[in-house]
Write a structure and sequence with these properties.
By secondary structure, this protein is of the alpha/beta class. It has 11 helices and 8 strands. It is globular.
Length: 251
């Protein structure tokens, strides 16, 4: 039985004051004991969040990591080993904003995936299609290629300690959400692609849905057989809303 997970990606939001307020709100939430809960602040606020969430009920992740695991001369970047030292447990890799807006290629993302995993952190691999690709009927092809890039580079065993997040680009921050059935279709295809390599690994991998997940739609999305939780964007900046999403995953 896969343990559900809900992770909140705060993206490029937060001041010391607003983060302190959000930490206080999160600490007041009644969170389900059967769900792994994580928040992913900007790198600037990781230390503040780790210090503020001392109960250990909520993991802290990072939004990005450098292509090399160890410290070195790479100005402006953060090494995975530094994220470990800061108290992080997981790292996003391949988020569509980094793929599309910052031009990160599969080759770069594979190096980041490897560096994250080599440091003992869990990579959360984000994959998804644009609206144009969906309308052209290319969803499964695009998602399959993004997944296959990692499988070819590192083999199926790399997914024993990894999470996959399906985020249709057209549903991120737009208010549009894939229907539970649309999301399930893609999640099932992802799991089937992994199962072609190793059925046991495929059954164990947690697949999260991301794309305008809210308290109002979380329960229906999470009821789908291959959706194991959510990667939450804007709604994770509201402690009450995020808490409600986590409780939906627990049910």
């Amino acid at each position: 039985m896969r343990r559900p997970m809900v992770a909140g990606n705060w993206k490029m939001h937060g001041t010391r004051a607003s983060v302190a307020e959000l930490i206080e709100g999160l600490a007041a939430q009644v969170l389900p004991g059967n769900v792994d809960v994580a928040v992913i602040p900007s790198s600037l606020h990781i230390g503040q969040v780790v210090d503020g969430l001392q109960s250990g009920l909520i993991m802290v992740g990072a939004q990005d990591a450098a292509v090399q695991a160890e410290q070195g001369a790479l100005t402006g970047e953060i090494a995975a080993v530094q994220l470990v030292d800061a108290g992080c447990k997981l790292v996003l890799v391949g988020h569509s904003e980094r793929r599309l807006l910052l031009g990160e290629s599969d080759q770069v993302l594979n190096r980041k995936f490897a560096a994250i995993q080599a440091s003992g952190l869990t990579p959360v691999l984000c994959i998804g299609e644009t609206l144009e690709q969906r309308e052209a009927g290319q969803t499964l092809e695009v998602v399959g290629q993004q997944l296959d890039s990692v499988i070819k580079a590192f083999g199926i065993q790399a997914f024993v300690n990894a999470v996959v997040a399906y985020e249709p680009v057209w549903a991120i921050g737009t208010g549009l959400t894939a229907t539970p059935e649309q999301a399930q279709d893609v999640h099932a295809a992802i799991r089937a692609q992994l199962a072609k390599e190793d059925s046991e690994v495929a059954q164990g991998v947690r697949l999260l849905y991301g794309g305008s997940v809210k308290a109002a739609n979380a329960a229906e999305l999470f009821s789908m057989p291959d959706i194991d939780g959510g990667l939450v964007g804007g709604a994770s900046l509201n402690a009450d809303e995020f808490g409600a999403i986590c409780r939906a995953a627990g049910n």
